[in-house]
UniProtKB/TrEMBL annotation:
Name of the molecule in the record: F-box/WD repeat-containing protein 8
Signal peptide extent: none
Length: 205
């Protein structure tokens, strides 16, 4: 008979729940990644670089996996609740959380570059070389009030979702850019307005 150690409090540790990747032609599992205790809540393979996968977890971490070795090559932590949306390119990661926080990370340095907070959970993130689109959707979309007018969602600002559009500007003179932190060049030592310290030199986007 095999004994199992029960931690103080009587609760057993939850088993790990990896992400499984299947070959659609053979219907066979080709690899699995991740051994975290929490559930993976979002993955993005389609938009990731070749042989890479980015995933968010309910343990509030964002992980980048190399599918060739099935190992995590980057893990960042900055959300207060579970991660709900992720996307990556060759060097940066954008993640959204259940608490409404959107983060831009440099995966090479495992460093947060920028963040923006909204009321509702982030349900969608998408970006390319110059734009970032996020969608925040409220958990409760059917408020109930004491009258007919109070039941109208349009009268309840806190129940309205919102779509944000940001610009990764390459124009050094665009001081009104929403993301000035992402337009630094190798010629300047400081290129941000949010009191966030970054390693230099910077990449030009």
């Amino acid at each position: 008979m095999r004994s199992r150690r029960i931690p103080p409090g009587g609760a057993e540790p939850c088993p790990s729940r990896p992400v499984l990747l299947y070959n659609l032609e053979t219907n066979q599992c080709v690899t699995k990644v991740g051994n975290s205790i929490g559930d993976f809540s979002c993955v993005n393979l389609h938009s990731s670089p070749p042989n890479m996968l980015v995933a968010g977890n309910k343990d509030r971490r964002v992980r980048v996996f190399d599918l060739r070795c099935a190992q995590a090559v980057c893990s960042v932590y900055g959300h207060q609740l579970g991660v709900s949306a992720v996307q990556m390119d060759e060097w940066k990661i954008v993640s959204g959380g259940e608490e409404g926080l959107v983060c831009v990370w440099d995966q090479r340095l495992a460093t947060k570059l920028w963040e923006m907070h909204a009321r509702h959970p982030v349900r969608h993130v998408w970006f390319n070389s110059h734009s970032l689109i996020t969608a925040n959707i409220p958990e409760e979309k059917n408020p109930r009030g004491s009258s007919i007018t109070e039941d109208d969602p349009s009268l309840h600002r806190k129940y309205r979702g919102v779509i944000y559009s940001y610009e990764f500007s390459v124009d050094q003179l665009a001081v009104d850019s929403v993301l000035p932190i992402c337009r630094s060049s190798y010629d300047e030592l400081t290129g941000y307005n949010y009191n966030i310290g970054l390693a230099v030199p910077y990449d030009s986007i």
